[in-house]
Structures are given as structure tokens and as C-alpha cells.
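Why run this: before we spend reagent on co-expression, it is cheaper to look at a predicted model of the complex and decide which construct boundaries make sense. The entries below are exactly what would go into the expression plan.
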Amino acid sequence: MPVSERSSPIRGLERRDFLKYCGALATLIGVGQTGVATVADAITTATKLPIVVWSDFQECLGCTIALLQATAPTPAQLILQQISLAYNEAAMASAGFQAEKSFNDAMTQGAYWVIEGSVPGKMEGAFSVGGKSAQTILKENYSKAKGVIAIGSCACFGNVQARHPNPTGAMGIRAWLRGPGGMPDAAVINLPRCPGHGDDLVATLVYLLVNGKVPDLDAHGRPLFLYGQTIHENCERRGHFEAGEFVEKFGDEGSRNHFCLYKMGCKGPVTYAPCAINRWNGRVSWCLHAGPCTGCSEDNYWNDFSPLRAPVPNIEIPALQGVSAQTIGVGMAAVTGVGLAAHLVGQVASGRMFKGGPEEGAKDKKGGDKS
Amino acid sequence: MTKVVIDPITRIEGHLRITVEVENGKVKDAWNTTTMFRGFEIFMETVDPRDTWHYAQRICGVCPNPHALNSATAAERAMGVDKVPDNARLVRNMLDATQIGYDSILWFYILNAFDYVNVPNVLAAKTTDPQQMALQETVKALVATGETNPFSNHYWDHPGYKLPAEVDLVLTQHYIQSIEAQQWANQACAVIAGKFPMIMNMAAGGVTQLPSIEDINYYLDRMALVKQFTEEVMWNDLLAVAGAFPELATFGVGVGNYLTWGLLEGKSQNPVDRVFPRGAIFNKQLKVEKCDPSDVRLYTKYSYYDDAMGAGKKPFDVGQKDIKFDAYQPIDGTTFPTGKYDWTRAARYPSPAGKDVPMEVGPLSEVLVAYVSGQAEVVKYVDAVLAAIGQTGNPGVLMSNLGRVAARMIKARINMDHAADWAMQLLANIKAGDFEVFTEPNLQAEGEGISGYDAPRGALSHYCRTKDGKVTKYAAVPASNWNLAPRDDMGVRGPVEEALIGTPIADVTKPLEILRTVHTFDP
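The model came back. C-alpha cells follow.
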């Protein structure tokens, strides 16, 4: 069958799948399974679609491209049926002053404002659209928007362009509004990662629709229902960490056995993000399937976690010290040369890394090929 | 004379303003202005050379894979690795194949189609097909909300929209399908590289790991779907658009110089053995000259940097570090158009006559160089396109907007013809017991590495110097430094600016023709 006949133009979800989808969202946004009907109602009974304006400041368009990779719902379902995407420079038909009109119309109609990209805090001329700087656009529109969502690490924290010496003074939207923007109470929901994840955006919009309020946020402005756990906690390679089985060199036998990437510089133990849960590209894969985590959901990771290939210092082994990894590791930027790798090797050599002793480790393996 | 400003140019990767002067219904002069700066060449100094590719792929979130590839290659060469294991070459080719596979679809439909396809017009189409009727209902419902949507405020009444409603409907249907089709390519990327965009498996010295047999099988499955979509849907849509808009061949000619570093690595890892070989064409003459990324020259008289920063220097010699950005006022435009007007630098290449000249880069350059070199697959597809538009034996007609659109599709076809081969070779190597994917680079080495390898939108080169485990100098010359170059110090226009000259404008308040020409460059 030709491809053109296999997929219908708008693939509406079957009712059963739709309820399953709402169930997943309900769990994600914390209203539990009893809230499924509420979520379904919020999505299906809205006669007006929530209007979304998507602005791009200092960015690479990766977050927009990531949104195009969403599968539940698909971008077509999302953009044509669940939200009214009034302004997005990559997707919209119009250009120039006609595009500006769409932006202004939508802001007047009442829109959620999604922002991709950072603000060049100390070099205003480093970004403009329609002859206006990011600073001017933020000043003119912040109070008009129904809510501001920063998508991706640039809009949240400045990301790569904030790497030392940060030539343009790149900073996140919230930091700029609360600082140079003179709005100390400014509220922004931060959905970091590089790129930002489409599922985060959908879940957050549904949360706002269902609950009518901003979700609980952590100190970095990230919703706790999404960013409450470390990568390490849910990593598919975690068992190998516990078993002291590490990739020592890219492409070695350990890498073919999917051993832990801690020694290759993985930032999973100090990185809070739901990547292991909602994965990427239609849940086909995620970073740790292929290489070490770079910590892209964390503020200032290009400076604090550099070099990316160096192991995170100051990590303790959870089962041994009775303290979880994520409570330590924080503030690692201040740590100088703790020599953790050697520490780790010592522990493996003495067999102290297994949760319940070597026997239990061997039992988990089923084949018992390694102990 | 009427001055027309389009800001923002939408449906592109970056941030772009186009300014033109229109006289007697035609563009008389043109300026392109990229309106964003981040400073990669500044902050990439001092990073660990093993990490450069993580930074570099953030230069472009649409085409991160070739940035990662070029950056890792430049860094590994600086650290003494001149050739990666063959498995690493195959994996890198497989990732670039997903990149080209997705990007061609993204460009043809999502970024380009609305210049030709009239979406509101689908409501006028007569159809009994349930899927098409569902699509009509969706468009109708969206319009009925009265809210601003992605189709609002566009010039759909422009005379340039002339397809029958039924064709608009089919192409809009394909537009929706294309969103899913580009996802397949990126799922194939993700299963090997963790995710897309921003891959996780690159390494200076090769790749992080050997893909599993299951991963490779999944890759083959997804890429077979992309191939089918490319051949059965997109290729036919190309021929339909090319046939319906013959005027595309009459404007958008440009500078007539074409440059490619080549792409899709051969077994020797020598650029001459690439599927698309390296080469340059000057003055529209169908003759290929040698070229090398170390010979690129940069000019900044019309860019928001000190004049002395560029001044015809080679990328390694251009320092951004100490420039006085604040001396210029990019936003208020007071320096425009006689002074500085662009964040992009003007990249130039020495012609055989010894003059630094602007070069067009992208699929058209790759296809022309391969065609003139006699690359059999390229000749086959080029001849097929020429026959379909009644121009057999006249490849010169491709030096136009039509050629840029067609070349991007030809590149997509050839790429998809090869993607499965690399995966099958990788499987064969694994079966033969070859698991090697990585060569450890010498981190402490003092060295210099250059990589030139085309991205979807054209020639891309990275330059890296290392010493004592640090990057001491980093430079990148992306396709936008070529195609979106401003005037150089000699006052010569860049390729997009030149291509706009002579473009007919039916209505200066609705400059659809400018969007068409600019979009053919996939800026």
C-alpha cells in the first residue's frame, strides 16, 4: 500500500487510545486516575482553543523541531485541533508585518506565550525581530500574556550561549524579567532541556487548562511533577552502576553490554529531568541509550559540568552510605579534584558496591555470567 | 522606487530580514540581514576538545548532525586522528542520511509549500474522499473559532497562488503526512544517536558505541518508510509544482558560482570519494575546479564587526574575541544601507582568476558539481527532471529557483538510495567480528584540524586548534556565511541578495515572490 494511503490526513485518536492518553496526562499532572474524565472534558469540550504564541529569541530552532517530533498528540493534532498556534515563525504562513499582526491579534485575544531562546542581557543588539529587541518585546507583552512558558534551556537559563565568557550576556526569560526587566514578581514556567520536549509543553498546557493555576515549581522554576527526579534514578543502566559495571572507553565491550556511562562523564546523578520516563522521538529512544547525559536541564551546565567528558566529582554510592546520590553531587562546581574515579575503582575492587552483597548481584543477572 | 522590508522572514531556520528596492515591478537592489548573534567562536575557546561537538551542534537545531560531525572531525584531526574506524564512518553516514531525509521533507512541505499551496482554497475543492473531507472539516473548524491560527493574515489572494483547489487539497494532505514522514527519519536517528535534535553518540575519534542489531533493524525499517515517502509522494509533488510554476526557471539566478565540500563519506574517507564530491564551479561554466576549506576568506566591512576582523583573512586568522560589538547599532538601522547591516560575515572563495568571489552553496551546488563530474546517479535524476519540464539537454536552466528546488529533491533521492547500504555494511562488519567504533585521540596534543562537509543547506566547515587539552582557537563557516553573506569589502552582493535582483513583484504589500526566492536557499 502506498504511504499516501496508509496514513490519514488527520489521525484522530481512537476513543480508547484517547482515554489512555488522557489517563497518562492525568497521572503526569497529578490529578490521578480519578481525574481522567476531567482531563478528557478539558480537551474535548473547549469551544475555544487555547491560543498559543510561540516566540523565538536567541536560539537554534531546536525546540521547534523537537515539538515537530511529538507523537502524542502529533503536531497536526496539536496545532490544528488542540491549540490555536497563532504565531510560530517556522510554521506560520505569513511573514513580515502580516506576521506581526498575527502576534498582536493573538496577544489581544488572550494567549499563552511560549518562548524559545534567551535574552542577550548585555548586548541588546544581538537579537531583533520586526525591528524590536527581545527586551522590548518582553516589556511590551509580558503583562498581556495569560501565562509565560519558557521552552528549552536557552529560554530558561541562557544555555550554550551563556557559556563563559557569555559574550552577549545571554540569560533566561525569568532571570531577565526579574532582574533588568524590573519585574521582581514575574512568573515563568521553565521547561528546560536541550532541546525542550514537546510532551512537557502539552502536559503543562493541559495542567493549566484542568487546574487553572500554575503547577508547583522547584527553585529553578521547573514543574515538580516533571522535574522531581534525577536521570540516574530511572536510568536503564542504573543496575550496572549498582553492580560496578562501567564503560571504560567508547566502543569497548562494556559499551556493547550497555554498562553504566558514569566514568565517561554522565551527569545523570546530578540532573533533574523526566527523560527516562517520556524519552524522545515518539519514545523510541533517549540520550542514555546512546551516550552520557550532559545535564542539559540544569542551570549553567555548560560552565558547571565542563568538561562534559569528565566524571562528576563527589558522587557517593547510594547503597553504601545510605544517602541518595542526588542529595550529594549538588554544588559540584565548587568541588576541586576529589579523585572520585579512583575512589570508585577501590570500591569495585573490594566488592563493596553491590546492594546486598555480591550474591544478590549475581542472582539478578539470571545467567550469572558476571559477579 | 519603493522600499520593501520583510521582517521576519518566516519558515526558515534563523532570524532574517530582507530589504529590497522595487522599481517598475522588479527588484532593483537587495540586502539580507541576519538579526541574531550568540558568539560561538568566542565561548568555544577554552573548552575540552572532546566536547566541541556538543557545543557546535547547538549552532543549528535544524541541522545539528553535520555540525556535530564537522566539529568532531576537526577536533579529532587536531588531536592526531586522521581517519576513524570504518564502523564510525558508516554510523556517521547513517546519521547524516536521517538528517538529509528529514530535512528535505521539512523544507519541501513545512518551510516551502505555503509559497505555492493555498490552504484556505482547500474548502473549494470537490471531493468524496473521506480523508480529504475530514481535512476540509478540520480547516473549516479552525477558521470557525475566529481565533488567530497559523494560516491567518497571509496573502492567499495573491495571483501567484494558481493551483486548482483539488491540487491544493492533495498537497495540503501531503503537508500533514509530511509531518509524520519527517518523524520517521528522526526516529531512525534517535535509535542510533539517542534523540533528535541534539544527538548523543558522537565522539572526537569516532562514535560512542556500536549500534545493536535491533537498533540497526529499526533504522532500516524507518528509513524504508522515508524512502517510500520521498519517492512516491515528495518526488511527484516536486514534478507537479515544477510543471505548474514554469516561471521559477526565469528568476533567482544568483551569483553563478557554486561551491561544495562534498558529503556522504566513502570508504577511503577522502573527500574525492564522497557520494557528492568536493568541487567548485565559477561563472556558470560547466567545469569543476578543486577547492579546499582552508582557503576560505572572510570579510566584515558590512557586518556588525570591526572592518579589520575579516578583511579577506582565513578563518583561523579571524579573531572575534576583542571586537567592539557595542560600537554598532544593529537594531535602529541608522547605518543601513550604506554601512554595516548584517550579523553574518561575507565568506568568499578565490576564483581561478585570483579574485575573492561570492559562492552559492547548497544542493544545487552539490548536484551541479556531481553532474559535471559525471556522477552517474546524479546524471540520472537531473536528466529525469529536465525531461519532465521539457528542458532535456539544458542543465543550465537549473541555475535558478527551479534548480534549487529540484536539486534539493535530487539530493534527497540519492541520499535515500544509499541509507540502507551503509546500515547493511555495518551489519556485515559486525557479523565479521569488527566491533571497532572509536580511536582515542591524544588529548594533550598541540594541533590543528579542519573539516569541510556539507550540511543540508550547503557547505559547512569547522576549524579547531588544540593545546594541553584545551581548544585554543575555534572557527565555523556555516552555509549562511556563504548564501546569506552581505556585501564584501569590494561591494559585491552575496548570493541571496544577487538572486533577488530582477525578481518580479506583483504587489509590494504582498511580496510572495521574494519569499519564494529566499526559501529556495533553505536559509
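The mean pLDDT of chain B is 95. Chain B is about 40% helix and 10% strand. Bring this page to Monday's planning discussion.
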